[in-house]
Each structure stands twice: as C-alpha cells, then as structure tokens.
Amino acid sequence: MNVLLLLDRASDSIFDSREAVELFEELENKGYRLQRPELHGSLVDMLEQRPEAAGAIIDWDTMGGELYASMEELNERLPFFALTSPAAAEELQPPDKDKLTLAFVPLPCRNAERAAAKIDRAVRRYFELLLPPFTRALFKFADAKKNTFCTTGHLLGSAFRHHAMGWAYYKFYGANIFRADTSVSVPDMGSLLEHTGVHKDAEELIARAFNADRSYIVTNGTSTANKIVGMYCVSQGDTVLIDRNCHKSMTHLLMMCDVVPIYLLPTRNAYGMIGGIPADEFTSEAIHYKLSQRDDATWPTYAVISDSTYDGLLYDCSWIKANLPVKKIHFDSAWSPYAPFNLIYENKFGMCGESTAGKTIFETQSAHKMLASFAQASYVHVKGEYDESVLDEVYMMHTTTSANYPIVASAETGAAMMTGNQGRRLLQNSIDRAMTFRRELARLHDESGSWFFKCWQPDDISETKCWPISRGERWHGFLGADEDFNYLDPIRVSVLTPGMDPTGQLMEEGIPAAVVSRYLNNHGVVTEKTGPYHMLFLFALGVDETRTKALLRALQDFKRDYDNDVPIREAMPDLFKLDPVFYMNMSLQQLTRGLHRVMRKRDLPKLMYHAYDDLPEMEYTPYQAFQKNLRGETHEVPLAELLGQVSADMILPYPPGVPLVMPGEKVTEKSAAVLDYLNMLCETGELFPGFDTEIHGAYRRKDGYYVKVLDEE
Ligand SMILES: *Cc1c(COP(=O)(O)O)cnc(C)c1O
C-alpha cells in the first residue's frame, strides 16, 4: 500500500478542515495510507527517513517556505501537493521544474474526488519514472510472468520449485531475482553486446552521470573492465607505462598481450601502505630514462594509474591528464566511483573536466565496491577520441553472451542513485559518518589515559576535505611527497594500532593489527584489509550510524579485553579452535607480545619498505614468461632458493596486495630484500597458527613454501 505523508507544523492546520478530511477519505478509498508524522527535525531529515513515501501533502501556510528553502536537498522527483486557499493558489508560481515536483491543490476544492484523482495520477507517474530505463523494463518484464521457453534454464525460477534442494535455494532469494534473471532472447530488452534498446539507454545514463563521452557496463568486474581498456590501447610490441601499484588484472593484461612494461614507481611508508606515484615520474625525462634502460622499448602508447590506491590516496588527475606525455591514459578507479558526486573530489577522478587535446582518457570503476550495485558490476568510461568499432569489438571479446540482467540493472541503478540531490546527500552522509568516526576515535584516544587506537590522518581534521599528503608533515610517513598532488580520501579510514610510529620505529610494546582484526571478526566486524599495524575500514554508502557505533564499540571491547588480559579461548574462539594445544594457556597480551616481538626481531616495517625499493630485473616480459609457463618450461624451487632465479608467476603478498615480483622477473642480490620480506611472512605464519599471510604465487607444501621458476635456457 502506498504511503502519503501529511506534513504540517501547526496544531490547527488546513489538514483539519472539513474539505481536507474529505480529500483524505477519497485518497484512502483509492488505497493510499495517510500518515501524519510529528515533525521535530528538518523536513529534509524527516523525508530521508522515509524513502519509501509515495508523495507528501503539505500545509502550504506553515510549510511552504521551508519546502522552497530545502529544494536543493530534496528528492526532486517526489511529488508534493500543497493544500492552500483557492485565492493563494492562483497567485503562486510553480517552482523550477527540475528542482521540485509541486502541485497546488486549492481548498475548499469543489470536487474532492477530482483532487484525489489528480494526486493519484501524479503518484503513479512518479513510480513509473522513478527507476532508470533498463531496470524499469526488467522489472516490468519480471512482473509480466511470461511463459518463456528460452534461457535461462531455470525458466524464471520454476525449475527450483520441483526439487527439495532447489526449493530451499529459491526460498532464500525470493521469486523476483529469478524472474529478472532472463536472457538476451527476450526481445523487449535490447542487447548489452550490441548496445541497443534499454541497454543503450542505461549506458547513456551512466555516461551522463560520470561526465564521460561514452560508458560501457561490464558484468565481470573491473578485472575485466581493465583488460578491455588495455587490449584496446595496445598492439603487439608496444611499450606501456604502468603503475607498479597495479591490480593483478593489469598484470594479467601484461601476460596476455605481447608488450613491454615500464613501471611508474609509487612511494611507500613504514605502515606498509603504498602511496602515490611522485609527480616527476610522469615527466618526459623520467620516461626517457626508463626507455634508455632497455633496448626493446619505445615511447609508451598507454599509461595506467590506480586512482585511488587501496589506502585511499587520490591524485590531482587534471595535472596528470595535462602533463603525462602519453596519448591513452587509463585511471583504474575501481575504488572511487563516487568521486564525481561530491566537490571534495573535484579534479581527482579520470572523467573530471573537459576532454584533453590529443589524448583519450579511460576510467574503470567497480560499481559494487563503493556504490549500491551487485558484485561484479563495473564501468568503462571514455573521454576523447576513440575508434568505436574497435572498442566495441574488444568489449565483446571479454563480455559474456549471457549477461546477468540483475547485475546490469544494478550497475544502472547504482549510477542513477547517485545523480540528483538524494545521491549527493547519500554520499555526503557517508563522508560525514566517516568524519564522525574519525573525530570520535580521536576523542577516545585523547581521553583513554593509557592507550587506544587512532586514525591515520592529519592532526587537524576540522575541515572535511581530501587532505593533501604534504611534504614535511609527519603523520603520513611518506618521504618526498609532492605539494598538492596526492590526497587522502576521508571515507577510507585506516585505524592504527599501537606499536609503531610513522617513521617505522617499533616500540617496546605493541599490538599487531592482525590480532585486533581477528578479534573484531570474532565479534562480527569485518575489516577490509589488515596491515602490520593498521586496519582499513571503508565507509561506503551502506554504512549507517548503527554500524559505525558497533565498530567503535568493538574497538573499545578489544581494549577492555586486552587490558584485562583475557584468555585467547574467550577472546577469539575461532583462533583457539585452530590449534587448541598451542593456544591453551595463552592470553591476549601474551599473543600480541609474541607477535610484536617477531616483528621487532625481524624489523618487519623495514623489510616491507625495502622489499619494494629495488625492483627485480625484468629478464622476460610478463608475456614471454607466460608463454614459457604455458609450454611447461618451469620447475618449482623452495622460496628460499628464489635468488638468482626467474619467477614464472607473479608473487603478490596480501597485504599490501600489490605484485612484488612480476612473471619473468629475476630476484637479484640488489633486490634480495624481496626474499627477506617473503621469508618473514612465512615465518610468522609458522610461529603463530592462524597468522599466515596470503601470498599469491607461493605454494605451501609440507616442508615450507615453494615458487615456480622458469627453466634456464
Ligand atoms: C578491485 C580492483 C579491481 C578489480 O575489480 P573487480 O570489480 O573486483 O573485478 C581492479 N583494480 C583495482 C585497483 C581494484 O582495487
């Protein structure tokens, strides 16, 4: 049943008049439920609590001014009906159509039935147009419950209903997801691969929302979106300029395409965070120097930069677009699809501003990571000149012929939700919530008297903005930062645990973050990433006040249990179960002390820092190495014997989640720190059950870790 809200601010409003009561009765006869909530806070706040409302009837005399004043923040589509005297209604001007949907209903109305019909029509129209075009068409199709004889094979869910297991599966999701899970055989929906019908409408809506010339919906994640852009941008033998802090999908691109990579080297800090690439890495001189080191490289045709980084560092993208002397520039913005929708991100995303003369800009984004979309929903955006038929072909090369329509709809809705006042507010609320969390944690830290967690952030966070990683400031720990080039995004919150200062100095006592993270997980809080002495929390659109408070409480609970030195068995039952004998008599403090001691003994921050100092030597390009791998020209060696060998795989410890060794790279004496670091990671896991690090490209056998290397010629 649709709800209409009655909003007034006076005790004797027009709502109590006989004519109004008549009108309300008519509306109830039409099936509406009328609610007259008490208005304590602002109109905007109240409506935000009621996103399901079908419309609002207001008492014009007491609410009109406030309604006009709130125009910039309200859902511009929600229909408002202003009850007012006939004389006043004649004089009133309808407001700017884009900002507010407002109709005046004069009272006493001669015909309550007619007034109710007018309201009903407006509400129906509101719901008809509320959803974006593809999603609207898909829901309409699902509602029609057609008798399909095409894929999907479950036939809109019916297959499940004839099987016990199927039934349990079906019941969990409910009917609609299956009714919407249809295929390209349905003619009403157009085609994703051909970019026709409502699919085309969806992509056009997305392009407008993100300030792109053209956008593509990708249903297999930014992992695939990246490969689409990459394969369009390179041809055989090209040189590509690539962020060494790249996602593994970019490494896979290098393995798939016969190209020569040269790397943009990011900064790092002692916390083990990968920072921004310094501005001088983007200059002609830097590129010339890198080319001079190789005899198979030519001027790069394509450059890829991660913006933001995992830890939430954004670039001044306008500067990069203007100054990087490469024709095709790709920003991998998997983490920051929200950037166009708040002014604090101005100039910090790939599609910002106008097109750049002589350059084509690409941006890829995971709608599912930070917007409200299903997993795998992703976008490719393009700005500038490109060959449409070739890009369409590459897109098709990587796209399934049976796209999941609920994912397509969620990619569209995730974008459409961000446009307009409500989307802007939604994001603003996320930012505000992260700010509240940061301030609250700082307060608890200051008041704790002993120890507490704190956020990785500047000392002064009074202003809500992206904070520059400025040279000379100590908090961020990045040496040689550029002035006004890299910025910390406030909604990506890294929480520091005690034990290390920003220069990497390990203190006598400390609490490795892995323990806290494990504890939190036992208490229903899941972190995004855990470093040696920091944990990352994302304040995405779905994070509300309750979740924020629960996180704060869990951190306080940890402190209480730590200070009371409770047994592991109590504090972390899942860890205890992993190895009851080992953890039998151990307490929380004993565990943290033990782990911290290992970190100190091996000086983990330094190992981690230097592991990325000198890159291993590129003996073969990733493509050549992979060809050898395919031909079986490889063998396994114990990790400890990697020195002097050429790795067949990428070796990627998580965190920081960045490739340490690329396929075809040789670990030499100069880059031996790589090995020390990997050994250290393995050792911690062996000493403390449950604390092993995930390392892609290293295989755990009974007698330790192994890696795959290329046979010698
Ligand atoms: C997660 C991520 C990707 C891959 O995105 P998916 O949508 O998970 O496939 C690519 N690049 C970066 C920087 C990422 O963080």
Automatic annotation (TrEMBL):
Name of the protein in its database record: Lysine decarboxylase LdcC
Enzyme nomenclature, EC number: 4.1.1.18
GO cellular-component term (any): cytosol
Organism: Pyramidobacter porci
Gene field: ldcC
Family annotation (InterPro entries): OKR_de-COase_N, Orn/lys/arg_de-COase, Orn/Lys/Arg_deCO2ase_major_dom, Prn/Lys/Arg_de-COase_C, Prn/Lys/Arg_de-COase_C_sf, PyrdxlP-dep_Trfase, PyrdxlP-dep_Trfase_major, PyrdxlP-dep_Trfase_small
GO function terms (MF aspect): arginine decarboxylase activity; lysine decarboxylase activity; pyridoxal phosphate binding
Assigned keywords, A-Z: Decarboxylase, Lyase, Pyridoxal phosphate
Gene3D superfamilies: 3.40.50.2300, Aspartate Aminotransferase, domain 1, Orn/Lys/Arg decarboxylase, C-terminal domain, Type I PLP-dependent aspartate aminotransferase-like (Major domain)
